[in-house]
Amino acid sequence: MNKLPALPWKWKESNGPDHVPSEMETRHLFYTLRMIWNHTMPESVRFHPYQHYAFSAFYTPEYLQQAIHFIGHELLNRPDIKPKWQAELASMAEHFADRPPEALVTDLKVGELAL
Q: What does the pLDDT profile of the chain (115 residues) look like in tens digits?
């Protein structure tokens, strides 16, 4: 089983400061998670519009799994999530609803990180 790092875990911006998820705006959290989703999941479950980003080697599958965990957890505790965002988050969750936890790792590999 993968061990998650001790808190505070931080999201590394490609060209800016690192952020603790609890200190990020809800919009920033949501679109960060959506960007990770679109770059790591199979094309059939991506959200549009899709904008391709070039990730550095820092963004390993393990780091992105951690990002999904910590950012997703923080989003679940936010009261200001817009209905459209809720629908996309529900779709993400539904993708894994009847699948084992390791399915995330499988999909990360299938999506080939689209990096």
A: 556 556 689 999 888 889 999 999 999 999 999 999 998 888 888 999 888 888 888 889 889 989 988 999 999 899 999 999 999 999 988 877 776 656 655 665 545 554 4
Six token digits for residue 26: 């809800």
Domain count, the chain: 1
pTM: 0.78
Domain that holds residue 36: 27-54+67-84+93-115
* Dist. CA 67–CA 70, nearest whole Å: 5
